[in-house]
Structure to design on (231 residues):
């Protein structure tokens, strides 16, 4: 048994020595997120004359998120960590497919009712939820960046905003964004995107929550992982 453990230990150490190709986090974020901005923008401009007001607004709010994610957020990152090439490629492919699905569906394939009006409680609720989530997300990202504004590369406990209640405030904000987007758009691609975003970010929030508790003895005991006062 001890021999097997030793072999596994050697294998693990060898794997750690393998140099995995990587990119700068700034450029990885910038390039991988671009398809989700450029492709819907293309559909928006090419079909602008034929789009209903609702379809136009759906594409606009989607592009607003990726305007921040692709052109602003990457160049505010203060982390010196790099992004593994395979992670970058998978993210790029996802953004490519998702950008096409959202753009094509909401400009060509979307069913438009005879009464296409924004004055609908469900749609208005979706828009409000989207911008609430976007505000939480941007604010939380800013709070995380400010933890390293003095150039310190060490990890600190985040405070302020929803970080006073949950460990994954940035993840929570982004999930709220896309849930609002799905409520507003009410289409299969929008609901699918919201669902898979939740499936991806909720576990990450829990992982971060666990990590904080393992590395900070004074981490707030009453702070939840993902949803304030719940989990």
């Amino acid at each position: 048994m001890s021999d097997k453990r030793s072999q596994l230990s050697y294998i693990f150490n060898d794997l750690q020595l393998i140099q995995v190709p990587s990119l700068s986090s700034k450029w990885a974020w910038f390039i991988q997120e671009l398809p989700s901005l450029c492709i819907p923008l293309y559909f928006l401009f090419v079909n602008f004359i034929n789009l209903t007001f609702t379809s136009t607004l759906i594409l606009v709010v989607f592009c607003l998120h990726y305007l921040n994610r692709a052109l602003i957020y990457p160049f505010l990152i203060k982390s010196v960590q790099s992004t593994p090439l395979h992670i970058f490629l998978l993210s790029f492919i996802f953004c490519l497919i998702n950008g096409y699905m959202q753009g094509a569906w909401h400009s060509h394939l979307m069913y438009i009712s005879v009464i296409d009006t924004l004055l609908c409680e469900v749609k208005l609720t979706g828009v409000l939820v989207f911008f609430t989530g976007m505000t939480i997300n941007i604010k939380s990202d800013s709070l995380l960046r400010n933890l390293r504004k003095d150039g310190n590369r060490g990890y600190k406990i985040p405070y302020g905003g929803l970080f006073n209640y949950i460990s994954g405030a940035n993840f929570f904000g982004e999930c709220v964004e896309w849930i609002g987007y799905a409520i507003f758009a009410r289409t299969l691609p929008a609901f699918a995107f919201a669902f898979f975003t939740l499936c991806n970010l909720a576990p990450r929030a829990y992982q971060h929550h666990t990590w904080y508790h393992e590395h900070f003895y004074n981490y707030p005991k009453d702070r939840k992982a993902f949803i304030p006062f719940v989990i």
